[in-house]
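Archive transcription. Copying these from loose printouts into the bound notebook so they stop getting lost. Printout 1 of 2:
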Amino acid sequence: MDGNIEKIKDRVDIVELISSYLKVHKAGVNYKANCPFHNEKTPSFYISPSRQIWHCFGCSKGGDQFAFVQEVESVDFPEALRILAKRAGIELEKFDRTFQDSKTRLYEVCEWSAKFFQKQLESNTGKKVQSYLQGRGLQEETAKNFRLGYAPESWDSLISFLRDRGYTEQEIIDSGMAIKRDRGGIYDRFRSRVMFPIADVNGQIVGFTGRIFGKKAADELAKYVNTPQTILYDKSRILYGLEKAKLSIKQHNRCVVVEGNMDVIMSHQAGAANVVASSGTALTDQHLKIIKRYTQNLDLCFDADSAGRQAMERGIASALQQSFNLAVVSLDDPLCKDPADYVQKYGEKWQERLQAPQPIFGFYLQNALKTFDVATGTGKKMITEKVLPILKSIPNRVEQSHWIAELAMHLKVKDDLLWEQMDKMAIGPAMQAGKSLQDKQAFLATAKLSVLEDYLVSLLMIKPQLITMVSSVLSEKEIEILALHSFFNIFKNYINEQQQGPVMDYMVQKMPEGGEQSPMYLERLYLQAQELWQGFTDYDLELEFMSILNQLWRRTINAKLADLEFAIKQAEKNKNQEVVSGLVGQFQETASRLNQIKI
C-alpha cells in the first residue's frame, strides 16, 4: 500500500488538487486561498508546490494530498486513498476488496455482539439489569430502540458465541470485543456490564460502552469501559445517537450535545430527539465537522462536575473556530447532576429546558463572576483572562460591543480599557504574513516563548548562515540554556558540512525520532517562513534574527531568575540557610550574565 501512496503523491500535484476545490492564486513561490475549514476574509490557507503540502495559519490544519481530501470530503484514509487513486489513474481493486471484506467481517462481529448482549437481558442477572434501567426511568421500548444489553460475568462467553459463528480470534480482537493475554489466548473485554451499542451515522454498530453492574462494581474497576480505537471505531469521529438524531437535528436546525449515553437515551425518550453525546470526551474538530453537515446551531450541556466543564470549554474553543452559533443549556435543579437525572425527575419538561439556552458568552461571563472575586484586582484580572479570549473570537463587532459593555459594568471599569486589553489578545499565535517590521517588533515584545522559538527557526530555514551569529554573542553554556539548542546544532552542522541540498530535507533527516517536532511541524514552519520573510533583504533578516534572539535570551533568563527567586523564598520560609546561600549565588551569577550579554 505504501507504494501506491507514493505513486499517488507523484501523480497528483497538490496545487491542481486543491484548485479543483478552491479558488487559489499565486503568492510569491506559493499559492494561497480562503480556508475551506473556517470562515475568513483574508486568505491564510497556503499551498507549497515545492514541498507538496498545505497549511492554514488561521485554523492550524495542514498536511499532504491525503490530509486535504480527508478534511474536505470528511472521509477516513481508505476512502481518501480511493478518491486520489482514481484521480491518479492507479488501480486499487485488490486492496479495496481485501480491505472491504475485512471491514465487513468486523461489522458482522459487532452486530452479532449486540444481539448476544441483548439476549443476555433474558437471563436472571439480565432481568436485574432491566430493573436497574427501569429504576433510572428508562422505558422498555426505549431500551429496545437503543438496543441496550448485558455482558455476563464471564471471561469467554462472547468469544465462544462468536467462534461458533466462524469468526477468528484476530477478528474478535480487531473488532475490540476481546483482549489478547500476554501468556496466550484471549478473553472478553466486556464482563458484568450494561452494554450500550455505538453506531455510525449509517446505523451500523461499530463499538460499545459498558457500564459496570452487579457485585463486580468495585471501586478498583473502571465504571465505564469503551471499545478501543479500531478500523470501525474512532471516538474522535463518532457521536453517540447521531444515527437516530440526524433527521431531528435538520428539522430543528439545532444540535444539542450532552456528555453521556444515558443523557442521550433519556432525552430521546422525553421527545428531544436532536440530542447526541460526545461519550465523555471533548468535542473534536471531526465531531464538529460532522455536526455542521446538519446545522450551524449548537447547544452544549455537560455534567456539572469539573471534568464536564473542562470538556465543554475545549469543545467551545473548537466550535468557535468553526463559526458555530453557540449556546449552553444549564440544569435549573442543583439536585440533577446530568440531563438523565433531569428527565427522570421532570420528563418532557426537558424539551422546554432545551428551548431556553444561554448565549455562550453570557454563560462564560456569569461563570467567571461566580468563580472569582470581582471586588479584588486579582479577581478582575482572572475574569478578563477567562472571558476576553472568548469575546475576541466574535466576528461581529456589534455583538462584541454588547458583551464588552456588560463585562465593564460588572468589573466597574471603562469599556476602553477592556477594548485595549482584548486588542492585545487579538493577535494570534503566529503573525500574519505582510506585517511591517515595526508591527512585528511590537508583537515580539509580548509573544510567547514558543512563538519566538518558531520565528528564530523559521529565519534559519530561510538563511542558515545566521546560525554563526549565535555563537559570536553567546557561549556554548549559554546556548544550552535555550530550548532551541538542539535546533542550533542541526543548523551549525548543516553549515559546517557545507551541505548543498535543501535545508528542509537535511532537518527532516537529522531530527531525532520520537521528538516533539514532527516532520509536518517542520514543513508548516518552512511554509510560514517563506511567506513571513519574503521581500526581506539579508541585512533585514540579520536585524530581525538578532532582535528575536535578544527577546528570546532575555525572557528565558528572566524566567529562570523568577524561578530562582521563588525557590529562594521557599528556602527562606523553611529556614534552610545553606540552600538559600546556594540559590542566591545562582541568582547573582545568572543576573550578571544577563547584564553582560549585549545582543
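Printout 2 of 2:
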Amino acid sequence: MEKIKCLIIGSGPAGYTAAIYASRAGLSPVLYEGIQPGGQLTATTDVENFPGYPQGVSGMEMMEDMKQQALRFGTDVRAGVATGADLSSVPYKITIDGQLTVETETLIIATGASARYLGLPDEQTYAGRGVSACATCDGFFYRKKNVAVVGGGDTACEDALYLSRLASQVFLIVRKPFLRASKVMQDRVFQTPNIQILFEHNTLGLFGGKGLEGAHLVKRKGEPDEEKVDIAIDGFFLAIGHRPESGLFKPWLKTDENGYILTRPGTPCTELPGVFAAGDVADPVYRQAVTAAANGCRAAIEAERYLMRKRNSFTKLLEKFKTELKNGTFWTTALTLLTLLTCLPLAAQDKPLVIAHRGYWQSRGSAQNSIAALIRADEIKAYAAEFDVHLTADDILVVNHDPAIEGFEIQKSAYTALKDLVLPNGEKIPTAREYLEAARRTQLKLVFELKPHATPERNREAAQISVELVKEKKLLPRTEFITFNLDAGKELIRLAPEADVYYLNGELSPKELKELGFAGLDYHYDVMRKNPQWFKEAKALGLGINVWTVNDTALIGEMTDAGADFITTDVPNDALKWIGTTYNRE
C-alpha cells in the first residue's frame, strides 16, 4: 500500500498539465500513463492549433515535451493502468495493473475519451494518413480537397459545415434516410452548396496507396435496389460519437447519459471532495488539446486548495489552543478561544474560504479599510481582502466602507476635501490606486466592492475607472468585483470578462444573475435565510456564493452546510492570526 498526496490518472494534455501545476505547487504528484502514454494526440501526425508551436508539431513530440516538463518539476511518471477504484472514503484507493493499491488524498481523473470507429480494418491502415476523428484538429490539412464525414447527428453536421469552409467537396455519409441533427443544423447543411448528403449509405472499406484515395460505399444495403458506390476522397472523418473512459469511476461519480463525468459548472470539481475530472473524460463539447490542458491546470489548482484547507484541520487549531492555554497570557488565550468558538464550524467542515473584511482588521472593530489592514491580512495569510470604493466628485476612487466620514458625504465630496482626514488607526484615507499598489506586494486575492452612485452613467463610469485601475496595476487575474448596481455590474462584465463579478443584495434570483453573466451572489445571511432555495439554485447553476457578515457560530455552521463558497466575517484581528492557515491560503 502506497500513500501519496496527489494521484493523476492519464497522460494526455490534461494529465500532464495537471502534473506540471501540481509539481510546482509542491504536491509531489504521481502520474500513471495508462494504456496509451500521451493519449489520443500521439496518433495525430501534425498539430498546428496548439499555442506555442508556430511551425506545428507532431502529436507524439508535443506530448513528449509536456512529459519532460512535468518530469522537470518532479512529477513521478509511471507506466501502468488503473484497474480498480474505491472512492467510498478518504484516502481514495486506486488499484494499478490489478496489483498495487495506491492511497491518495486527491485524485485527478484525466483518462480522456476515445472516438467511436466503424470497426473497419482500413480505419487503422489509414490512421493519420486520411482517417481522423477530429475535424477541428485535422481539417486544415484538407484545404481544397474532397472529404467525407460519417454520421447524421449534430456533431456530424457541425463537422461537415466546418470542413465545407476548407474543402472543395464534403460528402456526409448517413446510414439512415434522414438526419438526427437538430432542425437548425439540418437547415444549415441543406443550404451549403458543397455538402452532398448520401442518405442510406454505409461504408464498406477504404482504398488508396500511400494515403487515402477513396471509400467503398453501399447504398440501401440489403434492399432489392442495393447499389455499390465508390467516392474519391482525401479525408475520412468519423463523427459517430466518443466514449469517455469513465467506467472505472461510475459507481462513485455521477455521469451524463453518454458517460461523461459531471463536474460543477465552470470547475473540474466532482461531487466528491478532493476528486477532480479534467479533459475529454468530462468534456462532451470541445475535446481540444488546449481546453484539456486548461482543465488540467484548473484541476491541479483546485487540488492544491483542497489540500491547503485540509492540511490545517481543527486538530491543528486545537493544539495551538492547548499550547497557548499552557504558556500564553490571559488575553491571548481568550482571543484564541474566541476564534475557536467563531470559526470551529468552518475549520471542522472544511468548506468555505474566509474573506477578511472590515472589523477583521482591528480588535476595536473599526469599520475602515486601510493599507495597514491590507498588509496585516497578508501577514495572517487570509484568503482574500475585500475593500470598498466610492467615486468622488473629482473622479478619484477612495477606499472606505462608510458612506460618510466626520460629516463628509463621500460620494458628493471631492477628494481634496477628504484626503487629509485620518482613520481611527491614524492612517490617511488611501485612494484605490494607492491601495492597489500596496496589494501588488501581497499574495491576497482582492475583492473589489463598488458602491452605488446616483445615476446609471455614474455607475458605469465608476466601473470603467475601477477596471482601468486594476488593469493598470496588473492585478486583474486575482481580482473579483462586487457591485450593488446592475448598470455597474453589466459594465464590469463587459470590460473584464475574465474576472468574476458578483452581485450584492437580494432582489435578483440566481437564474436572473446567471442570464446576465454574473459569476455569483454576494448576499447578507438574512437574505439567504429567507431564500434557502437560492442556495440550491445557485449551486445547480454553478454560481459562487459569498455570505456576509457572519459572526455567530450557529449561523456560520448554517451557511456552511447550505453550501457557501466564501464567508465574510468580522473576527478581531488579534484572534484571526490564530486561525493561521486552517482554511485560508498558506
